[in-house]
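Repro:
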Amino acid sequence: MKKNYMLYLITIILFILKFISNYFLGSFTQIKSFYMFSIFCIALGSISDIIIIMLCGNYFLNKKYNKYEYITNILKFGLTIMIFTIINILIDKLPIKDTFYYLFNPISSSIKFLDILFILYLISPLLTDFVKYINIEKTKIMICITLLFGLIDLVSNFINLNMVFDINCLIYIGYFLLGYLFSKYSENFKKVKLYIIIFAILYIYSSIITFFLSNHSLNFTGYLLNTLSIIPMIMAFCIYVFFTKNVNNDKLKFTKKYLLYTLLISQILFKILLKDHNFRNNNYIIYTLLLLVGLFLVSFIISFIFIKISDFVIGGNNED
């Protein structure tokens, strides 16, 4: 299995950048320069959710499961969701008796995202059998189908069309499968530098068009730059293929556990900071960059300590 450690690292940074910028975008829409900066950050961070799902798909679908390991991982996944849900409830000062309700109605975007990964893991044994029968030609068809769903999502949001069938789950499954298939058939993707050019063009285009057409309306930003829309989808595919094929990552030791825990902890730390600071200052861009670096480093250190303690207590392993 290819070790996309550098891609893990970049994805975490983009994920943190996205939720910081989302906060500032909603709070300081009256400041035109910073509003534009926030949109450019969100456009860049919009690919992070997609890439995380693809990385997890590549990891899970490459594994050979046994029943004991599968059940154990489900219990660990569920326990992680419960622990971080309770932490968020305590921070938000919500009734602890409603914990069961919030397990199914996440109060944090990171926990909601973890719920999606949990569901994908539940069905991963079925998907593992499914991908055995997919060759490169069928992979290309699956790419087209996923992109079509992304286009449908974008159009339906613009015209406020209520879909008879929710295609979101199909898009997430598409990301999960393509993460594995892109890695498996990486040698079949030629001219990978072209993918970086496509990414750059779409990134600049989506950022500028969102800024000028949104008229400081957050709804437009959500339509064009959300995880299920076709433009972030293509951008994520381009970055994923480029790193899968070109970057030598074997010197950077980074596991999926650090990826998920760092995301969860960084958002909790940011929520705590919001309670004690209002960030009312003219140096918004500097604030964003300092928050990005600070949240990443602190959450990574906490994740490292947490994982080492849990591995020692429950007998974890160091598998990548």
